[in-house]
Amino acid sequence: MARRRHHRFSVALAGALLAASVALLYATPSAFLLAIVPLGYVVYGALSSYPDPEIEIERSLSPRAATPGSIVTVTLTVRNAGSRLLADVRVVDGVPAELAVVAGSPRACLSIPAGERRTVSYDVLATRGDHDFEATRVRVRSISGTRLRTRQQPAAGAQTLSCSTAVEQAPIRRSTRSRTGTLATDSGGAGLEFHSTREYRSGDPIRRIDWRRFARTDELSTIDFREERAARLVIVIDVRPPSRRSPHAGFPTGAELSGYAAERAYEALTAAGHQVEITAIGLDDVDVDGVRTVDGLPWIDSPAAGGSDAAARQLFDAVYRASTRADATVATDGSGTADPETTGKRLRSRLPTDAEVLLVSPLLDHLPRALVESITPQDVAVTVVSPDVTAAETVGGRLAALQRENRLRAIRAGGTTVADWALAQPLDVALETALRLEGSR
Amino acid sequence: MIRPVDPDWQPTRFSIAVVVVVTLGTAWLLLDAGGLSSRARYSVAGAAVLAVLLWLLASERWRVAGAALTGVVLPAVGGAVLAGVGYTFTSQVRRSVPVGAVFLVLGATVAVFGATALVRDVLDRETLVECLRAGFRTTVVVGAAMTLAALLRFDSVGRPVGDPIGVLVDPNATLPLASFLVLLGGALYGTRAAIHALPAETVLDGALTPETRAALVALDRALSRAALPFGLTTLPVVVLELGQSNPYAWLPAGLVEALGVVVGFGPLRAVLALFTVVAVVALALSRFLQSTSRRSGSETLAAVVPYGSGLVLSVCAIRFHGPFLSALTGRIERQLPVQLVVPFREVRTEALSAYGGELLALVVVTSLLVVSLAMVALAVLSVTFGLGDSPAPGASVAAAGLFTTAVFATVLGVSLLLALVGVLASLLVWDVGEFGGTLGRELGSQAEPVRTELVHGGGTLLVGVGAVGVALGLDRLLTDPGVGSTVGVVGLVGAVASVLLLVVATR
Predict the structure, then answer these.
(1) pLDDT of residue A179
(2) I want to staple B443 with a disulfide (CB 3.0 to 4.6 A). Which of A107, A119, A148, B333 is the partner?
(3) What is the Cα Rg of chain B in Å?
(4) Chains A, B: CB contacts under 8 A, how many?
């Protein structure tokens, strides 16, 4: 622990000298007496001793694991384990550089009687990944402030904030592949859940004949169950520079959140047995180094078609790298960004005829809408998941929010399902809401 | 780029409150006890206004308003400080107030300035320099108006001039060489500077043949080389013409006549004057556009409005010179001893008839601006060479002013208890302010350290009260009839010196 003397009261010496000088110059003996007060402070500072702190620090997180964009409350409990009052304890928690403090302060000044404890709370904005807290910096001063000790003290308790969870609701509207899976479809056939009854046709399995109806009406009919098939899905992630914007400093960018949503959806869909392919638009050559590219687009096939989870992870990592890179700039007139027609053509040429597209984009410019409109005429079902990174505090932010809202409406008007993901709510809630709305239409 | 006030890292609110309340209360008590509160009120108000001006300049939101007000308010600040400190000083010289009174007023003024500045923690170099810059820009305009007014009223030898522009382009002298050289230099070097400043190279790129380009470069180089000899020639000629009524009598009459035809040729002088004016305007515009293109809108506005303030101030001084000078001289008259009133009135009447009300008003405003700028410059020097490292410079200034006030209050015969309270208050202000400043810098405003500040401030107050008790006890001991006053004073001086030496030795 570093010790330091702070000669705070040196200035009082100068005061004492001034008083003595005035006393001599103006022949005023009482001015000498005035010098006693500053000298008293000099003695006070000189007699002050170094504090001898015994401090215990414990850190807790609530919740312990979070999703990107959610708020995590960090509570630091500082206990004076010594036998003397600590009048001036200053603590600065070692917040990981990736986490932005959005409420409260990780810095505090405490007076702690012997044996008692004080708490410091602050909120951080979670971003993707595991974030290790650094040791807490502690500085203890004597009451006079002339003696101080400083040290780095690791806190007990939570050391890492983990930020990743899986979504439970897969954002798929219908099955697209006639392979048995877990996704319930609107077509009747073999399955578990009742769908409809129809007139018996030659060749129908005997176990699907509705014998009760036959007993009542003396007519043969066949029961159709809701078919459960494996979906074939292509996830398109929008990482272009216009999407790399965040509502406030320290918040994840739209591209980063798109990557996060895509990764969670990929995990949920593959776990359910679906065939998922992934691509991203807006990645530079430096980003896709090592990632398989087809027709200028990074493309990861489903495991059944030769892809792998490792390759998917590689693409997601490339997406995160690109989405947090600050060197990408956008011309104010929109020039220099990807041409929707070209991007649409490339995507269409790669899309399997029976695939469904999940486009994940913050919708901060016109391209995603144009992309959707260029794909849907092919009878390819599209679902859009859009993290909302617009901020309403400024005029510019409100304008951007309005433009995004208009794009959402236009896409919905075209018959496309849109999951508008407000960052305050978990991703799966947004998906569930969007799919419920779709189902009710 | 000025630093906007960042409330997150300012001294704590508790420390600011303590510094402001204790400083204002103690300064008022000491001034009142010394009988100087009425004399000090102007300077104290001026100091507070100057600090508020710094608040505005340091604020991102009010910066343009601050820059506009600086030039307008600074003369009032200078006048107020002069009215307080200067008047007390003259009173002290006249022995109408005790010796040391001026330091008491000065100390209180400085203390109030420091405490007010601490409220927004604006006593930093950037803000003060911004104030100095804005004030200087206003002074330039007012000074230029004053010079123009003087030129309009007098020629070089003190005679009234009817039409200065007419004199410039159509001189009456036989050989008006000085004005011709000035015009020639203005046209040549003004045009050269304007061409350098304007994007001529880009505009004419490709339009010039290499030969023309080489000729222009050679001309430019020749002009550059001739600048010093030209200036060295012009200066003596100007001095010569200013000093003598017939400066070229020593030259042959034929030469004087021939030269006079050339240098006194009206159309030629008019063309030179036109070139000078166009070059100066082009140069100013070019420089202005170059600087504004690199600044934000508010920065540009903040840089320009002081000139506008100078213009407004000049117009007001000219337009309202009568009431302004009457109020000013009336106030001065009321402060003067009776025997000086009549001579003062005579001087005022003579000055008004000789210089005119407009010019006098402009001189007064310019002088007040210069006084204010000198005060701000002093503050800049203090911050640069001493206060810059302090976590709460405002508290340090307030404490220094309060300490000075308290010490000189004893010289004026204020009760020892009150003076001791003043010294204690000054040290408390410094300690709490500095402690709060450190807390603000280390932890920010959200740390809520009031409890710690109370413990620290309580300790400081207790030590101070103990020291005051010791001082009062010693005073009682010394005034005891049993102790000889000489012995007591010698003993006290010895004790203080011993402690001082002991403390110095331990370091």
Answers:
(1) 43
(2) A107
(3) 31
(4) 151
pLDDT of residue B484: 58
pLDDT digit string (tens) for A186-235?
555 555 556 677 788 877 777 777 787 788 777 788 877 665 555 678 89
Contact between chains at B443 and A92 (C-beta distance less than 8 A): yes
8 Å CB contact of B427 and A7: no
Q: Tell me if B217 sits within 8 A of B201, measured CB to CB.
A: no
- The residue of chain B nearest to residue A120, with distances taken between CA atoms, is B447
Q: What ipTM goes with this model?
A: 0.73
At B292-349, the pLDDT tens digits run 766 677 778 888 899 999 999 999 998 888 888 888 888 888 777 777 788 888 888 8
Chain A residues touching B34 at Cβ < 8 A = none
* Across B259-266, average pLDDT: 82
How would you write B368-397 as a 3-class SS string?
HHHHHHHHHHHHHHHHHHCHHHCCCHHHHH
A184 pLDDT more than 70: no
How many helices (H) does chain A have, and how many strands (E)? 10, 21
| pLDDT at residue A268, rounded to an integer | 80
Residue A45 structure tokens: 């500072």
Q: Which of A17, A41, A111 sits opposite B500 (nearest CB)?
A: A17
Q: Which of B394, B396, B415, B397 is closest to B406 using CA atoms?
A: B415
Chain A neighbors of B443, CB-CB under 8 A: 90, 92, 105, 107-109
pLDDT surpasses 80 at A86:
yes
Long-range CB contacts for residues A269-274, cutoff 8 Å, separation at least 24? A269/A170, A269/A172, A269/A231, A269/A233, A270/A303, A270/A309, A271/A166, A272/A170, A272/A181, A272/A182, A272/A183, A273/A181, A273/A182, A273/A230, A274/A170, A274/A172, A274/A181, A274/A182, A274/A183, A274/A230, A274/A231, A274/A232, A274/A233
Cβ contact, residue pair A46, B506, below 8 Å:
yes
What are the domain boundaries of chain B?
7-144+326-448, 154-296
d(CA A2, CA A148): 8
For B355, phi then psi, to 5°, come to -100, -25
- Complete DSSP assignment for B261-320: HHHT-HHHHHHHHHHHHHHHHHHHHHHHHHHHHTS-HHHHHHHHHHHHHHHHHHHHHHHT
Q: Which two tokens stand for residue A383?
A: 């679902």
A28-38 core/surface letters (b: 16 or more CB in 10 A; e: else): bbbbbbbbbbb
Q: Check residue B133 and report its DSSP letter.
A: H
pLDDT (average), residues A123-130:
82
Digit-coded pLDDT (tens) for B212-261: 888 888 888 888 888 888 888 888 887 777 767 777 778 888 888 888 88
Torsion of CA B418, B421, B426, B430, to 10 degrees: -170
Per-residue pLDDT, averaged over A282-303, amounts to 80
pLDDT of B503 higher than 70: no
Split at pLDDT 50, 70, 90, the class of A334 is: very low
Q: Which residues on neighbouring strands pair with residue A55, listed in sequence order?
A: A80
Domain ranges of chain A: 2-47, 55-163, 189-228, 232-440
CATH 3.40.50.1980 fits A55-163, yes or no: no
Structurally, at CATH architecture level, domain A232-440 sits in: 3-Layer(aba) Sandwich (3.40)
Phi and psi at B111, nearest 5°, equal: -60, -45
Helix (H, G, I), strand (E, B), or coil: what is residue B19?
helix
Instruction: Please indicate if any CB of chain B lies within 8 Å of the CB of A35.
Output: yes
Q: What are phi and psi of A140, to 5 degrees?
A: -120, 130
Residue of B nearest to A13 (CA): B500
Q: Which residue of chain A is at minimal alpha-carbon distance from B435?
A: A145
Whether residue B449 and residue A32 make contact (CB cut-off 8 A), yes or no, is: no
Q: Smallest Cα–Cα separation from A438: which of A356, A375, A371, A335?
A: A356
If you measure CA to CA, which chain A residue comes closest to B446?
A105
